Amino acid sequence: MTFRFVSRRLFACLAVVSATLSGSLLPQAVAQTPHRVVIDAREAFGKRDRVLLTNAAVQARQHPLAQWVEYWELTNRLNSAQVDEVEAFYARWPGTYVEDRLRNDWLLELGRRRDWANFGRDYPRFRMNDDREVSCYALLVQHLAGQGEGEGGGQGSGLAAHRGAPVGLG
Predict the structure, then answer these.
(1) What's the confidence (pLDDT) of residue 105?
(2) What is residue 72's predicted lDDT score, i.e. its pLDDT?
(3) b or e along 113-124 (b: 16 or more beta carbons within 10 Å of the residue's beta carbon)?
């Protein structure tokens, strides 16, 4: 076979694959529906459109990225979410990045609400420990629980030592 023949065949194959992947050879409903739902959900999250996000979460249940659609939907209304809703999300997506990403957002919300009891219960499960504001709230919870430097055995005690948070910010 000549180079020209091989290159034409390769180009033709690539054109067919490209057309198939872009959906031009498939009906629009089949080609774009599964991924379009996730894309639409991401756009709705950016616009803070609760209705679109709720609908997308229902439609995306079987999609490999369903956890992100659910994350966007719950994050969009986190200021009014209840503990049981967040715990249900954790149960559906245990051990995933998205679970811990939501935990970070939820801990921030609990701190804003001054809900120290729920913060104290959820904080030990926070694996990423990459948010300074959450670390600050953890130190406050530690202080409110009487585990500060004076009562908890000095520096290195309680939540601060366990999580690697800075001690003695006062």
Answers:
(1) 97
(2) 84
(3) eeebeebbebbe
Using CA atoms, how far apart are residues 90 and 102, in angstroms rounded to an integer?
8
Rounded Cα distance between 87 and 62, Å, is 20
Give the number of C-alpha atoms closer than 13 A to the C-alpha of residue 58, restricted to the C-beta side: 5
- Answer yes or no: is pLDDT of 126 > 70: yes
Angle at 169 between CA 163 and CA 170, to 5 degrees: 140
Question: How far is the CA of 107 from the CAs of 3, 19, 54, 79, 82, in angstroms?
Answer: 62, 45, 23, 11, 12
pLDDT of residue 146: 87
> How far, in Å, CA of 62 to CA of 37, rounded?
11
Q: pLDDT at position 37, please?
A: 67
Distance CA 20, CA 30 (A): 11
Six token digits for residue 28? 């629009």
pLDDT at 103 > cutoff 70: yes
What is the rounded CA–CA span in Å between residue 104 and residue 87? 13
Amino acid sitting at position 100: D
pLDDT value at residue 92: 92
HEC profile of 119-137: HHHHHHHCCCCCCHHHHHH
Q: In the structure encoding, which two tokens stand for residue 98, read together?
A: 């998205």
